Amino acid sequence: MMRKIFRYIALVVLIAIVVWIGFSGRIGKWFKGNDAVAAAQQHSGHGDNAPAAEPDPNNPGRKVLYWYDPMHPAYKANKPGTAPDCGMALVPKFADEEGGTATGSAKERKVLYWYDAMNPTHRYEKPGKAPDGMDLVPKYADEESAGGMAPGTVKVDATRQQLIGVRTAVVDREPLARMIRTTGQLTADERNIAHVHLKVSGWIEQVYVDFVGQLVKKGQPLFTLYSPDLVATQEEYLIAKRGEKSLGSSQFVDVAQGSQSLLRSARARLKLWDISDDQIKKLDETGEISRTMTFYSPINGFVMDRKAFPHTAITPDMELYTVADLSNIWVNADVYEYEVPYVRVGQRASMELSYYPGKTYAGRVTFINPTVDPIARTVKVRLEFANPNFELKPQMFADVQLKIDYGTQVVVPQEALLDSGNEQTVFVAHDNGYFEPRKVKIGAKLEGKVVVLSGLKAGETIVTSGNFLIDSESRLKNAMGGMKH
Asked: In what order do the strands lie in the sheet with 313-314?
């Protein structure tokens, strides 16, 4: 009997405890709810003493109820600003958005549909929440009309522009220049290289220029040569000269002309064998045959190669000296094939050498190779530089810069351009929140900017950020317009 009594008492106590815990939880929740409401009213400015909401400066004709965080609509404020949690701009809540029509205005605004501001392709028949938690935005009938503007023109109000982060910029004309930086190798000017050969056989007797790298002047003696052919030709010349002296004044015309012709032929043979006028003049004055003849440098320059040694037998096919004039230097630079269209003959260039830090040399482009290196995909571009002090030496490596001047062009930021591959589009901003898609033809791209050849003019305003979302809405509008027809 006592056991049953204890069991009833324990059961009653247990029921009492459960009822007490449930009742106390509800009371706690009720107090916490009242505290949260009071805190929200105090923070958002909607308490009993909260000031009235400020009007929206972008929509002076529409009444603003409050401002809210689009990511957390429970957060409300009585003036514009930024949300404390995500830093996004607060969005105005208009009075005409509460019921779907423009209450309090002279003319009601008809709502066509509601859509997600972050994805305008998602449309709904009534207000609510988007899948990402943001409030749906109404699309009004008066926003569909673009006032006779180009197809695809859309209207985006200030609220949605803030949501999608629309930024604009003014199209301008500005001078553009670009630098092509590459490397090059120095080499001698091929037009100023002399290869010394003789046209007769013989033996070198004395050598005056006897080492590679020696600087020689034009007309400076290189070596002396003994040649039986030259000796015989000198004898013939002297004989012809004596014959012309005795027979040149003959009363027989044929005899006189024959002697003169023989003298001219002997003199021409000496000239063809590179005997100088001074040597022939000396032969005329002295009448004595020279056993050896001296040969001279044909140009100013440095000896790059030497095969002339004393007491060496030579033939016309032997190259005795190579002399290069280095007062003018070539630089062969490698330019990538996609940069070649911007390089032209006569274009100015600059060059720097690691051997002479801080010094810049000025030159110009003189030749563009007609072929492309199949492996490196580069084109050889020849530059010319003056080298009066012979600081520039063949086989040096240099850093080359080619300045490309585009002149004054219409330019836009590269992020403003929507490039589909086949066509390029920008969005032109008009008054009252209208954005017009505009096809453009572009030129060079450099340093974050694009040259616009046609389709835009200076002074127009274009979208530089948020244009992808505007483009999606524009395409959707065109598609819906096509379905209506």
From this structure: 292-296, 221-226, 202-207, 313-314
pLDDT, tens digit, 9 for 90 and up, residues 316-372? 999 999 999 999 999 999 999 988 988 999 999 999 999 899 899 999 999 999 999
Tokens of 328: 């003018």
* pLDDT tens-digit map of 142-158: 655 445 567 778 788 88
Q: Which amino acid is residue 25, in one-letter code? A: G
Residue 361 burial (CB < 10 Å; 0-12/13-18/19+)?
buried
pLDDT(99) > 50: no
Please state the φ and ψ torsions of residue 19, each to the nearest 5 degrees. -65, -40
- Asked if the model's pLDDT at residue 250 lies above 70, the reply is no
**What are the domain boundaries of the chain?**
1-44, 64-151, 167-174+408-484, 190-324
Residue in the block written with tokens 């400076």: 220
The residue to which tokens 């032969």 are assigned: 283
Torsion of CA 256, 259, 262, 263, to 10 degrees: -110
Task: Identify whether the C-beta of residue 402 lies closer than 8 Å to the C-beta of residue 349.
Answer: yes
Residue closest to 302 by CA, chosen among 214, 390, 386? 214
Angle subtended by helix axes 228-247 and 253-272, to nearest 10? 160
Could you tell me the two tokens for 405? 């001047």
Query: Cβ(243)–Cβ(263) under 8 Å?
Result: yes
∠ CA 375-378-384, rounded to 5°: 140
CATH numeric code, 167-174+408-484: 2.40.420.20
Domain spanning 190-324: CATH 2.40.30.170:
no
**What's the gap between Cα 177 and its chain centre?**
9
